[in-house]
Structure formats: C-alpha cells, structure tokens
Amino acid sequence: MPAFAGSAAEPPLADSYYALLRRCGEGALLLSSSDDDHHHDGVPVAPECAEAELPMIDVGCLTTDNDRSSAAERAACAAAVARAAEEWGFFQVRNHGVAPGLLEDMRREQARLFRLPFDAKATAGLLNRSYRWGTPTATSPRQLSWSEAFHVPLAGVSASSSGADDGGCCNFGELTALRDVTREVAAAMSKLAGTLARVLAEALLVHGQEEPRRRCLPAEACDETTCFLRLNRYPPCPVSASAAFGLVPHTDSDFLTVLCQDHVGGLQLMKGARWVAVKPIPGALIVNIGDLFQAWSNNRYKSVEHKVMTNATTERYSVAYFLCPSYDSPIGTCQEPSPYRTFTFGEYRSKVQEDVKRTGKKIGLPNFLV
User: Fold this and answer.
1) Is residue 304 within 8 Å of residue 291, measured between CB atoms?
2) Could you say which residues form the signal peptide (predicted)?
3) Dist. CA 13–CA 146, nearest whole Å
4) Alpha helix ranges (H) inside 69-212
5) pLDDT for 261-279, tens place per residue?
6) Which of 203, 213, 227, 302 could covalently link to 89 via disulfide, CB atoms 3.0 to 4.6 Å apart?
7) What CATH topology corresponds to 30-205+212-325?
C-alpha cells in the first residue's frame, strides 16, 4: 500500500509546478503513469545511472570511548576516511554511535510530524517556523524540488524543555516524543560529525610547520549555536522524472553532512562525469564533504554535486546533520598558499543566496578563488 499522507497534509507542490510550467510555456505536466521507462521499482532513474558502492568504513575505533582499539587501527581508519573524502567526497559509516533503534524512532516521529495539516506545518510556528516546501524562488521547473522539510538550528533542538520561555527552545507543540528523539539524534550525529571532522583535519595538517596563518580547525569552529538538523520528507510524486527532482542538484555549503536515509533510496551523486545512485544500506549513515571543507583542504577533499530523485508511489524520509561554523568564522586553510581568498561563512552564504536569486543556481567556491 503506497504511504501517501492525507491530502490536507500535502504542500501545494503540484500547483507550483503547473504555475511554473504555464509561465514558462512548457505545456502540461508529464505524468509518471505515461513515462514508465524512466522508473525502476517506482524510483525514477535515468537509464545510464549505475548503482554506486560507496566506501563503507567501520568507525567504531574512532567513536567508542574505550581504549581497546590500537593506535594502528585508529590510524588505518582515519586514513580510509581521508581517502574516501578525496576520491569520492561521499562515504558510508557503520558502528557510528547512532543507535539503530533511535533512527527507527526518528523515522516514526517524522512521519507523525509531516502528516500534520499543511497549514499547521506552515503557519503554526512549529520547530521555530523552520518549515520549508518546494523551491519558492524557482524560475524554471528544473529548479523546483518536490519535497518538504524542517531546517532546525541545533541550538533550538538542544534547548531546555523545562517549560520556561528561554528564547531559543524549539516549539514542538504536543509532539513531545518528536522533541525527545530529535534531541538524541542531534546529539549523537553532532558527536560523530565532530569526530570525523577532526580526523579529516588532522590528516591534512603538516606537523612541524609554522602555524598556518589562516588555519581554523573545522570541528573547533562549529557547535550547537551554528549547526543545523534537517528533517526531510519527499512525497510521492505524480510528475515525470524528466520534469521534477526530489531535491535539485547541489553541493552542501557546510563543512560536513551526516545523512540517514530510509530504505526507499533516490540519492544520486556525481562520480566523474556520470550520476550514480546510492543504494540504501540498513544501519549505515552517509557522510559527505561540504564546500567549506573543500576550501579548507585546498581542494584535497571533494564537495560533490548530488540530488534526490522523485518516487512515483512511495514517500521518502531522511535526516541530515550539517556541521557549520558561525557566520563570522573565517574558513581558513590547512596550509598556505590557498587557492581561495579569505572569506567567512556569512560571506559565502550571502553570495550563494545572491547567485541563486540572480541566476537561478548556486556558483559556490569559484566565486572565492584567488
């Protein structure tokens, strides 16, 4: 049975597509029922899109608090993480410290959240008014994402639930179970992201050199006041794969992203000059490098373009943790000279937003080349 949410819960994505298509003079929408060649098991995948086997790394020796792992084991694991960041920009991890039962609870509570009426999600102030749907700034159909999300500052998620109005605490309404599990997931993903960021940074630092003039270690620049948790839902999509994305192609504008996707799949990334599909693996988390880490690493680590494809019959859920610095943090470099001029995270975000508004797409790091 397809997992459709109630119609009152759905964001007006179809209306946005119809309006955009009419405005662009592209005629009526192509429906998935007339475009079956673009689907496999309900998931739209281009014929040339192969399935990827991302590097799978057991990071238990890095995430556990005991001393049973040897220095050699930790060094080998760190080297595997750095190698994957250089060669793929994406990798998967197991024994990552985020309990499987916790992720199952998160999936269940997300479903309850997104099945609330659309008006409640969009206007009731839930999760500090962080609800987003589609792409309101889209100027062409290919810029429009068939998805909805709550993009929540970690500080609000982690705030005290004592009932006092402490300003930063998220409003979860009556969703107390969602509040509790979100806090646990955020804390566990934050710990994992910080560990991996330190490992990746240490792999690039040249010991014995003079302190780099612009060095600012990624893990040290990020905390709960700067990072984000994003709860995503991709509704079943009646639009052809040739006319809609679940999430448009992009790179992440952070240091590091930790992603838990469900069994449905749909994530694709660019490897070489081809899109490859990422097969969901139960219990594994996906980690990818963001633009800021590519800049900090002097392009050693790769921030890779990725996207989410739509599914004709089944909704998809995911949770993403974004390791971000404060807006006034200089991004720095692991070693001089850097191919990039000095810039802050705030400058970077502003330029991305300006480019998207002006051209309809993100330009990103090329704007900051020396």
Assistant:
1) no
2) none
3) 6
4) 71-87, 100-114, 118-123, 154-158, 176-204
5) 999 989 999 998 899 999 9
6) 302
7) Jelly Rolls (2.60.120)
